[in-house]
Specification:
Elements (H helix, E strand, L loop, with lengths): L1 H8 L6 H17 L1 H19 L10 H10 L22 H7 L3 H17 L15 E3 L11 H8 L5 E10 L9 E5 L2 E7 L4 E8 L4 H16 L2
Parallel strand pairs: 1-2
Antiparallel strand pairs: 2-5, 3-4, 4-5
Length: 230
Amino acid sequence: MRTILRKLDGRKTLTEREYQDLLQYIDALGDSSMESYRLFYNRYSEVLWQEYTVYIPKFKHGMDDLLNFLLYHPELMSQIQKTANCLKLFPLELHPYLSYLLEQEQDWALIKKISRSLSRSLSKRPQLPTARKGNAVLKYERGNPYKEIGLKPHFERLARYGFITRLQSYRYLQRGKASQDRISVLDAGRLGGIYTNKEKSIYYYIFLSETDMIKAENACLALNTALYGL
């Protein structure tokens, strides 16, 4: 692992095996010691995102988990206030992240901004596909989640949203990469997404828990707002 960390420090390209070892190391840190994970996050999260397009969350249950909860409890979007009393409104697994937000002006402002955007966008027809039961299914080319740099963390981030039942990559473009990552509605039960790393744009399907055009449009809007601020 020291060799891999030195490569991160030097912003050097990782082999597929090194990338796999790195993600497994990050997962193991999160499972064994949140203190060690936090130290790793503070040192490398910015490098991973800027140089390798790899997203790692600061908390085991963080921003996307909070936004997912708010999407299914929209009445709370207008009730979030910067006070410890707001913790009572949310499940226990979100309390560490919310406690952190209470001390961070910039991150708190971001959550408030996204919450307001979601509240305005979904105010007229707030229905979303029902929350799935169990985990989302993540399907990768050749069954290899480590083949494309950054795709596994991206899929795992999306899977935190309860209306997604399956994610599946299907197209890869090295030439003519997409100018912007985004999500669009394909049909009443399926969205299409684009994820771009340093090498290529990867197109993928997002399967929803219900087949309903209005709910699909709302799910698409929610994801674009939460992930891309669109």
